[in-house]
Amino acid sequence: MSSALRTQRALSLWTLLGLLSFGFLPWYFLQQGSLLQALSKVWAGPETASALVQILQHGRPWLWFGFAGLLICLLGLVGPIAAQPKRQGIFLVTGALLGILGLALSGFAIGATGWSFETLEIWLGALPQGQYGMGWGAAGVFLCLTILLGAGLARLGYCRGDVFIASAVVLCVLLLALFVVYPVCRSLISGFYTEAGELSVAAVWDRIGTPRIWSLGCFSGERHCGVAWNTLGLALATATGTTILGTLIALWAERSGTQLGKPLNALALMPIITPPFVVGLGLILLFGRAGLINQALEWAFGIPPTRWFYGAFGIWLAQMFAFTPIAFMIMRGVVQGVSPSLEEASQTLRATRMQTFWRITLPLLKPGLANAFLVGFIESMADFGNPIILGGQFSVLSIEIFFAIVGAAIDPGMAAALSLVLTVFALAVFVLQRQVLSGAQFTTVSGKGDAGVPLHLPPVVLNVCRGVAGPWLAFTLVVYVFAFAGGFVQTWGRDYTFTLNHFKTAFDVQWGEFGWVWAGTAWNSLFNTLSLSAMAAPVCAGLGLLMAWLLARTDFKGKNAFEFAALLTFAIPGTVLGVSYILAFNVPPVELTGTGLVIVLCFIFRNLPVGVRAGTAAFKQIDRSLDEASVMLRASTLTTIREIMLPLLKPALVAALIYSFVRSMTTVSAVIFLVTAKYELATTYIIGRVGNGDYGVALAYCTVLMALMGFITVVIQRWVGTRELGRREMRV
């Protein structure tokens, strides 16, 4: 079967699927019950009826837009039009745009009680009824119209005529627009409104143009600068530190010529498999006023305990623990991808190992270094858990935003204005990173075999890795030993008697009249967290690598804006993202508040940037000749990705899967406003226990989470495996 015929049949199937969704799936979001229960009622009441029944029986004619769009697309796929690519493209684009824009505009214009805007009601008259949030039927129709729109653009010559690429671009753009740009903009735009409700650009400056935000008093004798400079300085320090540490650990694990790879991998990943506040609690047990370090100083030297650890240094140290593993995962894949043949060629030309490392190896790590720095910078700016625990009198933007939303004086406008400052900082670093990487080539994985042996680190570099990364990893182990031990004692600081009562309270299992009963108070939150994270992780990893492939291997208009939108969720605090989702998805056309789906979506798009950055760094190392060879052998784009790209992207895939799953399990700020009694999560349960002073149960739960996520991390690494580059192993 020819490629053109396969594409034609695929588009026909997408059109048929759209028509079936329009006629046989519940159009609006189900308020109760499952999809299977609602399928038998699609011809019944307005809550479960399909779009076709909504039009014919329940007086919602605006839904004809969807059917009309699909019908126009169908006309472009049959008869003589199907043999004329340009004309077919016009039909597909026209039909898809009519359906998408018509349904989207009517969705925003018509709410639950009628028109959403008073002006429309004055012009067009009152509606007899409104509409609910869109559901399964609407999702199916929108998906099909999106694919058909991409196919139409390809027929018109966009994306070199490749239907898969064009459809992927359109789908990703619409997903980013709906679940990133729309909620964030809806939240941030409130910063431009005055207290009287009038739109004014000056309102932003009135809120943020104060000494508390921009003061440089720390340079003139005052204790602190403004929170904007505090945030920027902390982010730069954290990004620099995590990038250096992550690189040193990656080099030590991959190029030391020892069997330290697996132990280093396990130790480096420990901070990422724990809730963010565990690091803060562990550090407080060590360095807090009643911590062991202060007690030892008082006993040995008579130095009275103080709160010296709370502030910029404490936040920075906690962020170094929290974000170094991300840099390590990015850099490990990049170090693995450096071609040994280039290093051997350098040594053949009589270069020393140090010269080879400095002039060959290190420059080839540049994409990974830039990506690790960018991720560390944005993670630091968006961090909420560590500053709230360890900040003391040192304030950052994320804390200011949090108290602007939930403090005594609630001011969403101030929160929005401060979020704009964070976005500007992120944009500046994003542009700087692109300038650093522009005009250089970093390809090291080509279509040719590479029998070279990876170069051992020069003695000086190896000693630096051991001297810096070694103590750091040992310190990491100490912090987590304290956190682990806290769940096994009666009361930390007073009664160190060994006990398992905290675990029994949280995870007790009893035999009841009808079998085993999950009697512990934490089971519901654990099951919810596991199921929602398991749904989000593969989607997040797959979508992140797809976007990375589009950014690294294709060219299309708006590419820079596309990349920034994909990274935008890291540039804003999780609290703001959660509030943005509440504001955007609490009313039609997308009504998801109170459901598990809104939490899954928040997980996906909150964690998406790491998959994008890890994939981008990996793609920069893979020679385009591999893609071209596959295409010359008449493989489709999808086949090339599946058979050629994915096996070489295993380190990036592992990083994306592990990060998205673990961060979904341990996130706090992004979901704290989205959870309900039905969908309580592990972190919100732990925070509740900490708030009640029940640290034993909280630390016991953290211990279970650490063990569980460590096991799942190993399973992911074993399941995905490692890439084979046709190289000899380093000799020990």
Could you walk me through the main structural features you see in this protein, from its secondary elements to its overall organization?
With 732 residues, the chain is mostly helical. Among the domains are: 154 residues, no CATH class; 203 residues, MetI-like (MetI-like fold). It has 32 helices and six strands. A two-stranded antiparallel ribbon has the order 1-2. The chain has a two-stranded antiparallel sheet with strand order 3-4. A two-stranded antiparallel ribbon has the order 5-6. A hairpin with a 3-residue loop joins strand 3 and strand 4. The longest helix has 31 residues. The two termini are 52 Å apart. 47% of the residues are buried.
What percent of the residues sit in helical stretches (DSSP H or I)? 55-70%
Structural class: mainly alpha
Nearest-angstrom radius of gyration? 28 Å
CATH names the topology of the domain at 495-558 and 582-720 as: MetI-like fold
Strand order of the largest sheet: 1-2
Reading off the top of the CATH hierarchy, the class of the domain at 495-558 and 582-720 is best stated as: Mainly Alpha
What name goes with the CATH superfamily of the domain at 495-558 and 582-720? MetI-like
- Rounded to the nearest angstrom, the distance between the terminal CA atoms is 52 Å
Q: What are the SSEs and their pairings?
A:
Elements (H helix, E strand, L loop, with lengths): L2 H22 L10 H5 L11 H7 L6 H12 L9 H25 E2 L2 E2 L2 H7 L11 H20 L7 H26 L13 H7 L2 H4 L12 H29 L5 H9 L6 H12 L4 H10 L10 H26 L2 H9 L4 H12 L1 H17 L2 H6 L6 H10 L5 H26 L21 H27 L3 E3 L3 E4 L2 H7 L1 E4 L2 E4 L4 H31 L5 H9 L6 H11 L11 H24 L4 H9 L4 H12 L1 H17 L15 H10 L3 H26 L12
Antiparallel strand pairs: 1-2, 3-4, 5-6
Helix pairs in contact: 1-4, 1-7, 4-5, 4-7, 5-7, 7-8, 8-24, 8-26, 9-21, 11-12, 11-15, 11-18, 11-22, 13-15, 13-22, 15-18, 15-27, 15-30, 16-17, 18-21, 18-27, 20-21, 23-32, 24-27, 24-30, 27-30, 28-29, 30-32, 31-32
